[in-house]
């Protein structure tokens, strides 16, 4: 749940900030899926993002809204994959740093992807 109200101006601000940073993922239509659902669906192919998922949007917005002092201290995030990638990338883009906490049973591919983005252990 959001701890503060979100206004349309907030959404426009974030959309503008993200405009040159994220891919406008294409909408994919599948007639077989539409037939099963009984209506048209247009999921976005968010795997086109540099981090492979839409999580960069929320992570970037959160770091963007930190104070200078908070950003200088860095962030700590708990994730088993996609949010970790978005968090590391957002912190890099905004001059901050990220500590990512993952469970020991996270797939090694996810760990390797997070490590490949930055100075992580």
Number of domains: 1
Low-confidence spans: none
Which CATH top level class fits? Alpha Beta
Q: What is the strand content?
A: 5-15%
- Second rung of CATH, namely the architecture: 3-Layer(aba) Sandwich
Rg over C-alpha atoms, rounded to the nearest angstrom: 17 Å
- Give the end-to-end Cα distance, rounded to a whole number of Å: 31 Å
Secondary structural class: mainly alpha
Strand order, biggest sheet?
1-2
Give the biggest sheet: 2 strands, parallel
User: What percentage of residues falls in helices of 4 or more residues?
Assistant: 40-55%
Tally of helical segments: 6
What general form does the structure show? globular
* SSE order: HHHHEHEH
Indicate the CATH topology: Rossmann fold
Question: What would you note in describing this structure?
Answer:
This protein is mainly alpha-helical. It has a single domain, classed as Rossmann fold (3-Layer(aba) Sandwich), CATH 3.40.50.1100. Helices cover 45% and strands 7% of the residues. The protein contains six helices and two strands, in the order ααααβαβα. The chain has helices at residues 8-18, 31-37, 56-64, 68-73, 82-93, 108-117; strands spanning 75-78, 98-101. The chain has a two-stranded parallel ribbon with strand order 1-2. Helix 5 (82-93) links the parallel strand 1 (75-78) and strand 2 (98-101). Helix 5 (82-93) runs parallel beside helix 6 (108-117). It is globular, with a radius of gyration of 17 Å. The mean pLDDT is 86.
